[in-house]
Every structure is written in C-alpha cells, then in structure tokens.
Structure to design on (266 residues):
C-alpha cells in the first residue's frame, strides 16, 4: 500500500510555522490518536475530556515527542508535573495504534511497552489521571521538591520548573540527573525569559488558568534559554534546543539533554 500523501497546503503550512515536515501526521491518524488519548478521560468528567482534547490538539510538543522518537520503546519514563497524565494517555494510545498498524510513515518507531510514572502536586489532576489510565501508569501525588524520583531512562518535565525558586530548580535537576544515570535523556520544556513579551504572556496565562482551576502553584522564576543550557551542561548533559511554541503566543523551548552512555568494560 502506498503511504498516504499529505496535501500540499498542509506541507506549506508546516514549513511556514517552522515545523519539521514529520511534525504533520497524515490525516486522519493524528486526529485519531488525539481522540483515542482524550476519550480515556470520559470517566474523569467533561472538563478533563475537553482539556485533554484541546491541549493535545494545540500544543505542538506532544506530536513532536512521538514524531521524533524522544520516548524510546520499552523505556521507563518519569513525567514530573504530569498534570492529568496527558503524556501517559498519549503513549498508551500510540502503543494501541501501532499494534493495529496505524503508525505514520516517516515517524520514529512507536513508543511501545513504555512504563510511565507521573509526579503531580494537584490532587485533582492525579485523580483525573488515575480515572483515565487505571493501572496503565503510576501516579504519585506530591511535590517534586521532596518526592523521591524512581530510576528512569527518560525524564520529561514540560512547563513545570518555573513554579519553584531557582535554587529548587537546580536541586530538582541534580536529582533528575542522578535518577537517569548514564545514557539517560531529559526532555525539558522551559519558557525563554530572554523573549520578554512572550515570556510574560505565558506567565499571565498561567496565572489566569491557575486561578480558575484553584491550583496552589504560582510561577516563580524563569531564566533565558542560554542559562538553562549552561546549567544542564554543568550537570553533564549534552543539550540540543528546539523552539516549541508554534501556533501559540509563548516563548517555549524544548531542551533535550542526554547523558553519555556507560563506558563498556575493556
Ligand atoms: C503547566 S502544567 C503542565 C502539565 C503537564 N506537564 C503538561 O504539559 O500537560 C504544570 C503542572 O506542574 C504542576 N506542579 C507545579 N509545581 C509542582 C511541584 N512542586 N511538584 C509537582 N508538580 C508541580 C502543576 O500542578 C501543574 O499540573
């Protein structure tokens, strides 16, 4: 069977928005994947369902993680500040789609057999995550500043570190490095404080959303991307950065940090 052809207009739009061509799934697969991942939230209520659908649709990071294979098959994933567990639900949906031969050509291998642990401060979000995923993933309700991190192959932290003070960010990142060990990967999204207006826009939206949701966390501290990278390099990571706020008014950047693999015994 020949691979589905992406309409020319869609390819042009992707280029226009600065996205890699592989970020655009041939219709209807990406929509189906979002639908499957969101539908898991029906038992968790209407808010959780619509929030999942909207976030997966509009936030470019989720599609990017899958298309570029940032979550390796059979890996142990730690998702810090996991919210209602969207990444876990998407990984489960991806596994299911791949088993049925529904995986976009040109994408990295599907993240089959992944085991995810999520850590999240909000009890309400943890309840939603558990309602949606059952025992498909493990969720710990607690503060990343004090909860022990399990050993992991990949740690994902999306839009979370700015909720704690700079010293606490450093402590969390040092513990992440220890939880990963040699060969591990950190997938970290941060706002770039050097892009002042866009960075301020994301903090403003954060404040409004958190007030509406009655959440405890508040934005505390941001840094320019160059500072984040320098800090990660100091911890031993090799870092690549990619813009990750296409289609939004924010200045988000995805930092992918890898630790050198273990030395083979000679
Ligand atoms: C902007 S949301 C991002 C959620 C998720 N990472 C995503 O991308 O869908 C930030 C999340 O971090 C959580 N959070 C903030 N401070 C935290 C802390 N100290 N420990 C654990 N989670 C925290 C918030 O409750 C919130 O769910």
């Amino acid at each position: 069977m020949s691979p589905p052809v992406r309409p020319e207009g869609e390819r042009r739009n992707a280029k226009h928005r600065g996205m890699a061509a592989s970020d655009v799934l041939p219709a209807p697969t990406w929509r189906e994947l979002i639908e499957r991942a969101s539908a898991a939230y029906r038992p968790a209520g209407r808010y959780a369902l619509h929030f999942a659908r909207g976030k997966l649709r509009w936030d470019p990071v989720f599609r990017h993680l899958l298309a570029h294979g940032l979550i390796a098959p059979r890996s142990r994933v730690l998702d810090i500040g996991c919210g209602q567990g969207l990444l876990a639900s998407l990984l489960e949906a991806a596994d299911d789609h791949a088993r049925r031969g529904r995986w976009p050509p040109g994408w990295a291998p599907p993240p089959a057999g992944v085991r995810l642990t999520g850590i999240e401060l909000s009890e309400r979000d943890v309840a939603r995550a558990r309602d949606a995923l059952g025992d498909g993933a493990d969720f710990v309700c607690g503060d990343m500043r004090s909860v022990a991190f399990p050993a992991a192959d990949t740690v994902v932290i999306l839009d979370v570190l700015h909720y704690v003070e700079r010293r606490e960010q450093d402590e969390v990142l040092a513990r992440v490095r220890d939880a990963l060990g040699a060969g591990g990967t950190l997938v970290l999204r941060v706002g770039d404080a050097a892009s002042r207006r866009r960075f301020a826009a994301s903090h403003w939206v954060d404040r409004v959303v958190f007030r509406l949701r009655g959440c405890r966390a508040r934005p505390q501290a941001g840094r320019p991307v160059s500072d984040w990278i320098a800090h990660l390099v100091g911890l031993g990571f090799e870092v690549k950065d990619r813009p990750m706020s296409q289609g939004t008014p924010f200045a988000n950047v995805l930092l992918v940090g890898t630790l050198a693999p273990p030395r083979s015994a000679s």
In short: The CA atoms of residues 243 and 253 lie 5 Å apart. The pocket of S-adenosylmethionine is lined by residues 55, 81-83, 86, 119-122, 125, 143-145, 158-160, 163-164, 215, 217 (CB under 6 Å).
